[in-house]
Amino acid sequence: MDQVAARILPWRSSGTSSTRAGFTLIELAFVLVIIGLLLGMGSEILPMLIKQNKVRENRVLVREVKTSILGYALATGRLPFAASSENGTETSGRLQGYLPYATIGVRGKDVSLRTLFYAVEPALTGTTNREEFQIRLRELITGVRTPDLFCDNGTFQAAFVVLSSGENLQVDPPNDDNGNGRVDIHDDNQFSAPSGTYTSDNDDILDAVSITYLHGILKE
């Protein structure tokens, strides 16, 4: 009976086959459209995710370096001078420059393989033991000595500052004052707020320890 019906109504068989083929092409086109949309979204989202991951890694690194410098101060009774070159060895008398990572014993380059920068309060580099170091801190807090390193428009009296130049590989104002993209002896002693907002104008990642915080640690 089915064979007879097929001979009498051949259009049913061919029509069904054509309809199935049409639906398959539509489904395939739909899938291709979805894939195209996902790829388009991925091309925009992926760079953003990579950038966010780099920022996060640099923040972690700067925070770890800050902790290591605190440990160095507690162990030696002083803060290290800055390094004048990227070899990471402190240079006596140098207050602003590259991080003295070799002296401290830490990793000195960020995720972009740029050496971190560092600035230090002058009064805290010449001490020889913890007692003298604590006296200097107390003198800075009480005004016997005048602080010389500040963050956040002068409202944050810093013992030291650690800085990554960020994605653009250049230190941005107000951390760089002479336009050379670095922290060096030609810059002033003013820096942006620690853990400040990451913007298109300033993508530096900066952290610092206040004089009062460091004094409190030494008292414990």
List keywords for this structure.
220 residues; 6-stranded mixed beta sheet; alpha+beta; 6 strands
Number of helices: 5
| Mean model confidence by pLDDT | 85
User: What would you report as the Rg, rounded to the nearest angstrom?
Assistant: 31 Å
Summarize the helix and strand pattern as letters. HHEHEHEEEEH
User: What's the story with the biggest beta sheet?
Assistant: 6 strands, mixed
- Beta content: 5-15%
- Which spans of ≥5 residues are poorly predicted at pLDDT below 50? 4-9, 11-19
Helix % is: 40-55%
Derived structural class: alpha+beta
Q: Please count the beta strands (DSSP E, at least 2 residues each).
A: 6
Shape: elongated
Measured distance between first and last alpha carbons:
99 Å
As for the number of domains, it is: 1
Description of the molecule:
With 220 residues, this protein is an alpha+beta fold. It has one domain (56-218). It contains five helices and six strands, in the order H-H-E-H-E-H-E-E-E-E-H. It has helices at residues 2-8, 10-76, 101-104, 130-142, 211-219, and strands at residues 96-98, 117-120, 150-151, 156-164, 190-191, 205-210. Strands 1, 2, 3, 4, 5 and 6 form a six-stranded mixed sheet that branches. Strand 3 and strand 4 (156-164) form a beta hairpin. Helix 4 crosses helix 5. It is elongated, with a radius of gyration of 31 Å. Residues 4-9 and 11-19 have low confidence and may be disordered.
